[in-house]
Amino acid sequence: MPPILSFKIISKSVPHSLRALSVITFPPAFLFLLITGIASSRVNPAICILPLFFSSLWSLFLLANERTCGCAASGLTGTPMHLLVDLALGIWLLVCLIVTWVVFPQRWWHDYVGLVMLGSYGTVFVMWNFAVHLYFVAGQVYEALAPGAGAQYPSACAQCRYGPFPLRIRIETRSPVVAEGGYAPLLDGRKGSVEQERRDVGDEVV
């Protein structure tokens, strides 16, 4: 089974790249923010780790589901579920960013320049994840407001039944039952009429 994250998957489409980079950027962001929080003995900006974790987890889940489906760029965006989760995570990240910028002590800009720089590097990843969620939310809102937009979400996946759930995609197929004559009727409702037509043709030949 191929890995969830690989160069082929990352370069598959723009949604693939954005979701994958949301996952890849979590480890360095976690490291920078955690060190800043421990060294400063303050909650900010380390509190940004929490929304970053759920943002990366959401992207990882969507990539795992899309790999199971095998569709091109679908299953990563395009449904009301995607819109709600991306919107909630984006707002959460933005709130943490604003709180960090406002609460960060002004004296640190002079006394702890190195610590401020480290925290700033960590918030860059937070801003990146916020931009990713903003991209998907803006795209879905544009789709919803586009002329002729209906219930068939354009960027969603019909094979995934227009939703990110469940993880295991099952496509229901009905195998036709082969009749005694060696053929399968196209429609069960016409089986009787087809057999009647065959009998009529046989009577005419006789």
Automatic annotation (TrEMBL):
Ranges annotated as spanning the membrane: 20-38, 44-63, 83-104, 116-137
Protein origin, superkingdom: Eukaryota
Native organism: Trematosphaeria pertusa
Keywords assigned by UniProt, alphabetized: Membrane, Transmembrane, Transmembrane helix
Protein name: MARVEL domain-containing protein
Organism ancestry: Eukaryota, Fungi, Dikarya, Ascomycota, Pezizomycotina
